[in-house]
Write a sequence for this structure.
């Protein structure tokens, strides 16, 4: 097709072994792994944990919580971020780690759903600073997005 233009979107994720991370980020990943064990996932059997690192070094965890009245449950990422907003509303969320315990493939990346990506992006937008996202695999590889637009290039804006 002649005279056709295209828009190229790039998602850049840094890949590291968890052991290569700073103590702060390594601890955050471990908290997400621990949080996955508190998931209430009787229907999907999909246990997800998330841990948010705040500007004062506080770590807030979340895990997915299912409900028989679908879609009344909530994803781990949103549980953690909404808890930050409710309990620590004046603090910046610097980083969010996500882990899925239920994956059989040790290298599968725990990619957040679209709704969670939007909530992450709005958190970043509201606080006017980048929110780093760490996606932790079962083999301890960590995919790091420097900000949420690496995961959601065209977020809703208001």
């Amino acid at each position: 097709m002649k005279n056709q233009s295209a828009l190229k979107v790039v998602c850049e994720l840094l890949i590291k072994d968890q052991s290569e991370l700073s103590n702060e980020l390594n601890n955050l990943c471990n908290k997400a792994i621990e949080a996955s064990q508190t998931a209430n996932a009787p229907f999907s059997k999909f246990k997800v944990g998330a841990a948010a690192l705040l500007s004062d070094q506080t770590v807030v965890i979340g895990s997915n919580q299912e409900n028989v009245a679908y879609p009344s449950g909530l994803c781990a990422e949103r549980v953690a971020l909404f808890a930050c907003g409710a309990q620590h509303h004046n603090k910046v969320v610097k980083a969010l780690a996500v882990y899925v315990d239920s994956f059989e493939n040790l290298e599968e990346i725990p990619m957040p759903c679209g709704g969670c990506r939007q909530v992450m992006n709005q958190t970043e937008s509201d606080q006017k600073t980048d929110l780093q996202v760490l996606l932790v695999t079962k083999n301890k590889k960590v995919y790091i997005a420097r900000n949420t637009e690496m995961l959601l290039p065209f977020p809703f804006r208001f």
